[in-house]
Design a protein that fits this description.
Layout lengths: L4 H15 L8 E6 L4 E7 L4 E7 L13 H17 L6 E3 L8 H11 L5
Parallel strand pairs: 1-4
Antiparallel strand pairs: 1-2, 2-3
Amino acid sequence: MARTTRELRQRRHARIRRRLSGTPDRPRVAVSRTNKHISAQIIDDVAGRTLVAASSVEAGLRSTNGGNVEGAKAVAELLAQRAKEANIDMVVFDRGGFDYHGRVAAFAETLRAAGLEF
Protein backbone atom coordinates (compact mmCIF):
# COMPACT_ATOMS: atom_id res chain seq x y z
CA MET A 1 0.00 0.00 0.00
CA ALA A 2 1.48 3.32 -1.05
CA ARG A 3 1.81 5.98 1.62
CA THR A 4 1.27 9.66 0.94
CA THR A 5 4.04 12.21 1.40
CA ARG A 6 2.19 13.58 4.43
CA GLU A 7 1.96 10.16 6.08
CA LEU A 8 5.67 9.55 5.52
CA ARG A 9 6.56 12.91 7.04
CA GLN A 10 4.34 12.24 10.05
CA ARG A 11 6.04 8.87 10.58
CA ARG A 12 9.48 10.52 10.42
CA HIS A 13 8.33 13.18 12.88
CA ALA A 14 7.03 10.54 15.31
CA ARG A 15 10.36 8.73 15.08
CA ILE A 16 12.24 11.95 15.85
CA ARG A 17 9.94 12.89 18.72
CA ARG A 18 10.52 9.56 20.48
CA ARG A 19 14.00 10.71 21.43
CA LEU A 20 13.65 14.49 21.32
CA SER A 21 11.95 16.53 24.03
CA GLY A 22 12.08 20.11 25.25
CA THR A 23 12.86 20.88 28.89
CA PRO A 24 12.65 24.15 30.81
CA ASP A 25 16.45 24.50 30.51
CA ARG A 26 16.56 23.53 26.84
CA PRO A 27 13.19 23.96 25.08
CA ARG A 28 12.37 22.50 21.67
CA VAL A 29 12.18 24.57 18.47
CA ALA A 30 9.44 22.97 16.38
CA VAL A 31 9.44 23.99 12.71
CA SER A 32 6.43 23.63 10.45
CA ARG A 33 6.30 24.54 6.79
CA THR A 34 3.81 24.57 3.97
CA ASN A 35 4.29 25.54 0.35
CA LYS A 36 3.50 29.19 1.13
CA HIS A 37 4.45 29.69 4.79
CA ILE A 38 6.81 28.68 7.57
CA SER A 39 6.27 28.88 11.30
CA ALA A 40 8.08 27.81 14.45
CA GLN A 41 7.49 27.58 18.16
CA ILE A 42 9.78 27.22 21.13
CA ILE A 43 8.10 24.68 23.40
CA ASP A 44 8.65 23.47 26.96
CA ASP A 45 7.38 19.88 26.67
CA VAL A 46 7.53 19.27 30.44
CA ALA A 47 5.03 22.05 31.15
CA GLY A 48 3.27 21.62 27.80
CA ARG A 49 3.57 25.33 27.00
CA THR A 50 4.62 27.33 23.98
CA LEU A 51 7.11 29.91 25.19
CA VAL A 52 7.72 31.85 21.96
CA ALA A 53 6.35 31.62 18.42
CA ALA A 54 6.86 33.26 15.03
CA SER A 55 5.21 32.74 11.65
CA SER A 56 5.24 34.15 8.15
CA VAL A 57 1.48 34.84 8.44
CA GLU A 58 2.02 37.47 11.15
CA ALA A 59 1.18 41.05 10.25
CA GLY A 60 4.82 42.18 10.36
CA LEU A 61 6.03 39.42 8.04
CA ARG A 62 3.20 39.27 5.51
CA SER A 63 5.25 41.33 3.06
CA THR A 64 7.91 38.58 2.98
CA ASN A 65 7.26 35.34 1.15
CA GLY A 66 7.32 32.47 3.66
CA GLY A 67 7.61 30.01 0.79
CA ASN A 68 11.26 30.80 0.07
CA VAL A 69 14.60 30.82 1.90
CA GLU A 70 14.54 34.59 2.50
CA GLY A 71 11.15 34.32 4.21
CA ALA A 72 12.42 31.47 6.39
CA LYS A 73 15.40 33.59 7.42
CA ALA A 74 13.12 36.51 8.33
CA VAL A 75 10.92 34.28 10.52
CA ALA A 76 14.02 32.77 12.18
CA GLU A 77 15.40 36.22 13.00
CA LEU A 78 12.09 37.21 14.59
CA LEU A 79 11.94 33.97 16.59
CA ALA A 80 15.53 34.41 17.80
CA GLN A 81 14.81 37.99 18.85
CA ARG A 82 11.75 36.88 20.84
CA ALA A 83 13.73 34.01 22.37
CA LYS A 84 16.42 36.42 23.56
CA GLU A 85 13.72 38.60 25.14
CA ALA A 86 12.44 35.50 26.96
CA ASN A 87 16.01 34.63 28.12
CA ILE A 88 16.22 31.49 25.99
CA ASP A 89 19.65 30.77 24.54
CA MET A 90 19.90 26.95 24.35
CA VAL A 91 17.34 24.91 22.43
CA VAL A 92 16.78 21.52 20.80
CA PHE A 93 15.96 21.66 17.07
CA ASP A 94 12.96 19.62 15.87
CA ARG A 95 12.76 19.63 12.07
CA GLY A 96 9.27 18.12 12.19
CA GLY A 97 10.03 15.27 9.81
CA PHE A 98 11.01 17.70 7.05
CA ASP A 99 14.34 17.22 5.27
CA TYR A 100 17.15 19.35 6.69
CA HIS A 101 17.43 21.15 3.38
CA GLY A 102 16.36 24.42 1.81
CA ARG A 103 14.07 26.50 4.01
CA VAL A 104 14.46 24.30 7.10
CA ALA A 105 18.27 24.38 6.90
CA ALA A 106 18.27 28.15 6.26
CA PHE A 107 15.96 28.60 9.26
CA ALA A 108 18.31 26.61 11.52
CA GLU A 109 21.44 28.39 10.30
CA THR A 110 19.82 31.80 10.90
CA LEU A 111 18.87 30.78 14.44
CA ARG A 112 22.47 29.73 15.09
CA ALA A 113 23.80 32.98 13.63
CA ALA A 114 21.41 34.94 15.87
CA GLY A 115 22.91 33.31 18.95
CA LEU A 116 20.72 30.32 19.79
CA GLU A 117 22.73 27.19 20.60
CA PHE A 118 21.69 23.70 19.45
